[in-house]
Amino acid sequence: MKIHSKTLGTIIAIVIFGGILGASAMGLWKTESVRNPNSVQRNQSVGEAASEDTVTAGDYYPADIRGNHRFGEISEMFNIPLEILAQAFALPADIDPATFKNQDFESIYPQFEGEQEIGNGSMKWFVALYTGLPFELEDEEEDTYLLQPAVDILKIHADLTAEQIAYLDTYTIEIEIEQAEINTAEDNADNDEEETELKQDGMNVAGKTTFADLLDWGMSVEKIETIIGGDLPNHLMLVYDYCAENGLPFGQIKAKLQVEVDTLNP
Amino acid sequence: MKSFTKNKIWLRTVLQVFFFILIALIAVNRVLEDSGIEIPLLSNASLHAVCPFGGVVSLYQFAAVGTFTQKIHQSSFILMILVFVLAVLFGSVFCGWVCPLGSIQEWVGKLGKRLFKKHYNHFIPRRIDQYLRYLRYIMLIWVLYATAMTGKLAFGDIDPYYALFNFWTGEVAVTGLVVLGTTLLASLAVERPWCKYACPYGAILGITNLFSVFAIRRRESTCKSCDICTNECPMNIPVHAVKVVRDHQCIGCLECTSEAICPVENTVIFATKGSL
Fold first, then answer.
1. Closest CA in chain A for residue B46
2. What is the reported pTM?
3. Which of B46, B64, B93 lies closest to A12 in CB terms?
4. Residue B77: which domain range?
């Protein structure tokens, strides 16, 4: 059988776009995946926390939050007190929270550039947990961090599951509020120092850390096995997943691993 | 007998332009999303999510621990499967009809043809070139090994495809920009240099040329041995010297066929076995 270029081109287009449409119809076409099964559980629990009748017509979803939304607008959309938002994101006192936009986070947290980032995703995540509204946490290339004050607020005000608390503990940026409030010249030296530390977070044991990372950072197989109390699994496995599968407290394991990593990489 | 005027495989050009623009717009949409703006009806997926090679490099990790390599998503797996289906049927037509990086090399090459005329695409001596063509398999092995060992996109920092559509975002590694620049510059002298010598995805798809259902076939009884098919081939395959093109470098562009350049009708065709 001979094939003409027009037929070939048509088949190529049909296979690619037909395949994508078919995969979409079956729910298989996902361009922004959840990083691991534990994340799915976290997402589901957020969704489950909000029963159908808590979301009425006209309600907003956290996923609707955009970078150009002001804190004031978000406060109204989700009925969250403005002062809570300002406190959660440690807005400096000289900034009007009502007019502050999500996309301007970088202007007040220059020290968080890099993997540890407070951005629009952080706001969506905070609002979802605070309100219990459905939200699919899509960690694309960055993990979703919150500042310590936001985590503290959620632990007090939100109905969090144990998994959500574990996740928050993993993805918390510890910050003294006054450090965020004062981004002035006299503190630049301190900030620079902190920035340096944060930029070294390539060696921070976190939820996305794999056993391969630990080995890269100089840890021996024996040391890792001692800490996790078992044989080293496939090195591509996340430490977080290993802990979840084996019922280990991730926070404690993480802390022990971090001590070892810090010792090896002073 | 046809005249020697070349007929255009116009649908190939249409698809190349379409996919190039589509990927470019998806890359732009991705950046616009951060500003709260989006191009309607268009995906804002990351480029990694719409690259089938992402599925290939994730295979080991997916089989071993059930997760994807960092930055790779399920859509990459779907695309990988679709492209493999096409490849089993038609060989590496993805390279010749879809891949935007291949397309831009081809377009830059048109300028090279004007500059170097007959010398274009014939600068590297065949005795050296034939070995260089296997470099992409070394690249493939290294990419698969390094990705499997680290769980990270080992290819990311040198990937010219990612650099091509993200060079303006500041997210591209210098090495990626250097590879892209070198590739485009080399395209002035050699047709599709990245595809020929370095592309790991082309390497794996090229293997399907050895057994694909359809292939370029030459009818010896009517062939005038004018070599025009060989001269036209962007991948320098000696079409005039074989009955069936089973070369791992063929990109299925059909530019050598009677539909395009071969002056004798029904002599070089894209067909299944037994069609001649």
1. A31
2. 0.67
3. B93
4. 10-209
